[in-house]
Amino acid sequence: MDERSSTTPAAVGTDLPTPPGSVRETFQRTWLLEVPRTGVWDWLCDPGTFTDTQVPPWRVEFLDPATGGPAGFSAGVLTTHHGPLLHLPGVLGEQRDGAYRDLAYIYGAYVGSLRLARPLRLQFFLADVADGGTSLRLQVDADVRGWFAPAWRLGNRVFWGRFGAWAARGAAGRG
After folding, report:
1. Which SS3 state, helix, strand or coil, does residue 33 take?
2. Does residue 5 sit within a domain?
3. Under 8 Å CB-to-CB from 161, ≥6 apart: which residues?
4. What gap in Å lies between CA 117 and CA 150, rounded to an integer?
5. Range of 68's domain?
6. Global pTM?
7. Residue (of 120, 132, 90, 95) closest to 27 by Cα position
8. Under 8 Å CB-to-CB from 94, ≥6 apart: which residues?
């Protein structure tokens, strides 16, 4: 997905230039889930999936820019995931019902520190598989200091490692 939704500002996500001394990293992971795609999509688009499971002091918030109040998942909604060593402000971009969701991070997003890792974009791709289940693919793009890239890759493998099991458990009985 390289196209940008008209609701996503151009100065966010992968449109940002890579800082000197950093490399562009793309992490991808695919899970085959034994639950229907509609259930997985419903789980991914439920703000509670991300807000209700946070361990303090980390937190996830979704804000409707028109009202200033809480929001769900729709293009243009502002979001932030924050806590110690983590600041991930972003804007929800394109969504294709049941198939694709895009989150572009805003300049200033970081993991560890602004000089270590700058996440740019988080995408989810869903597709039906032959047995009635779902293929769920995640892609995270980030600019990472060259020397920190191996740790970034390992951290993503660990952090996202159980996401497929959480998705299958959370999506069961939905949709």
Report:
1. strand
2. no
3. none
4. 12
5. 25-171
6. 0.90
7. 120
8. 1, 3, 4, 5, 7, 8, 75, 100, 101, 102
User: What tokens does 83 get?
Assistant: 């806590």
Read off the CATH number of the domain in which 152 is found: 3.30.530.20
Number of C-beta neighbours around residue 96 at 10 A: 12
Query: Considering the domain boundaries, does residue 92 fall inside one?
Result: yes
Instruction: Return mean pLDDT, the chain.
Output: 91
pLDDT in tens, 126-153: 999 999 999 999 999 999 999 999 999 9
User: Given the structure tokens 């229907």, which residue do they identify?
Assistant: 36
Element containing residue 151 per DSSP (H, E): helix 149-160
Count of domains observed in the chain: 1
Question: Within a domain: residue 12?
Answer: no
* 4: confidence class by pLDDT, cuts 50, 70, 90: very low
Distance in Å from the first CA to the final CA of the chain:
25
How far, in Å, CA of 3 to CA of 85, rounded?
A: 30
Q: What digits encode the pLDDT tens for the residues 13-47?
A: 778 889 999 999 999 999 999 999 999 999 999 99
Domain membership flag for residue 97: yes
